[in-house]
Design a protein that fits this description.
single chain, about 260 residues, alpha/beta, Elongation Factor Tu (Ef-tu), domain 3, Rossmann fold, 2 domains, six-stranded antiparallel β-sheet, six-stranded parallel β-sheet, 12 strands, about 30% strand, binds flavin-adenine dinucleotide
Length: about 260
């Protein structure tokens, strides 16, 4: 590790990897020391290139109660970092900043409200962490009245966590999982919801009773989904504080790398 990095980073080993498609995969990292975080926070992962650290934020999928840290990553063609992360298999190491960041789900979930989680592809990460936390917390956490997770993708092969989410929905009456695809013509076996998450959002919000004072909406991932969903839910009367967001990249920005 370059000498001038101080103790900002630790080197973590990849102890597990699962691929879902050519450009979507999960890794589990074993930190050198316990890494304390809240569900909804992110870690900063990086690799050393020419003596410098190239790093990006990644939401943590695992719950704080799990010993390893899990991430769900999409390889961005032409991206600066992800083409370097993608080849790393079990036994490889990468760098992680020692401190988590983020305030997305800071206040926890109000158990008296209906919570609508809306994600595009890898944006499911903070919600998976929160759901796992509800199941694993040593001090039992009261589950909210209802949680609906609406996940949008182009194709069903992008739903990396669908088995886990469907199993949870089958087991817990307070949880519903709705995956929706925007390109059903390229996915002939699909018989679930179709359309972008933001297109079907209002239908599920109304059905579950996500209304001012009764519901909360959390948006994570694609900036376009976030902007449209925010507008839709604002029109239904939700206040600023009832719509929270974690945007993964700035709207309209193109990949900066050349690899
Ligand atoms: C708080 C936070 C949490 C994040 N969590 C995750 C996560 O859990 N998993 C994950 O894969 N990424 C996540 N990201 C995005 C991640 O930090 C990187 O931006 C992404 O991996 C691309 O990095 P790169 O260096 O390869 O691309 P760059 O060279 O930095 O190019 C970035 C450009 O690629 C495009 N881009 C970035 N991400 C995507 C995407 N997912 N789909 C389509 N285009 C994209 C945008 O145009 C963006 O401007 C998160 C971002 C933030 C801010």
């Amino acid at each position: 590790m370059p000498a001038d990095l101080g103790d900002k980073y630790e080197r973590c080993e990849i102890v597990q990897r699962q691929d879902y498609s050519d450009d979507l995969w999960s890794i589990r990292l074993r930190p050198e020391e316990p890494f304390h975080f809240r569900p909804g926070q992110y870690a900063t992962l990086g690799v050393e290139l020419s003596g410098k650290v190239l790093e990006r934020p990644y939401s943590i999928v695992s719950a704080p109660e799990e010993p390893d840290l899990e991430f769900f990553i999409e390889k961005i063609p032409g991206g600066a970092l992800t083409p370097h992360l993608h080849p790393l298999g079990v036994g490889s190491t990468l760098l992680m900043r020692r401190r988590p960041k983020g305030v997305f789900l800071k206040s926890g979930l109000d158990s008296t409200r209906v919570h609508l989680f809306v994600a595009t592809v890898t944006g499911i990460a903070p919600f998976a962490s929160m759901l796992r936390h509800l199941l694993l917390a040593e001090e039992p956490v009261a589950p909210p009245k209802k949680i609906i997770l609406l996940q949008g993708a182009s194709f069903s092969s992008e739903f990396g966590y669908s088995q886990e989410m469907l199993a949870l929905a089958a087991d817990k009456g307070w949880f519903e999982y709705v995956p929706t695809i925007s390109r059903p013509w390229g996915d002939p076996g699909w018989n679930g919801e179709t359309g972008r998450a933001e297109d079907v959002l209002r239908k599920y919000a109304d059905r579950a009773g996500v209304s001012p004072g009764q519901g909360m909406v959390y948006l994570c991932g694609h900036p376009g989904m976030i902007a449209t969903s925010r507008a839709v839910m604002s029109r239904s009367g939700l206040t600023e504080s009832e719509i929270l967001e974690e945007q993964y990249w700035p709207e309209g920005k193109e990949p900066t790398g050349d690899s």
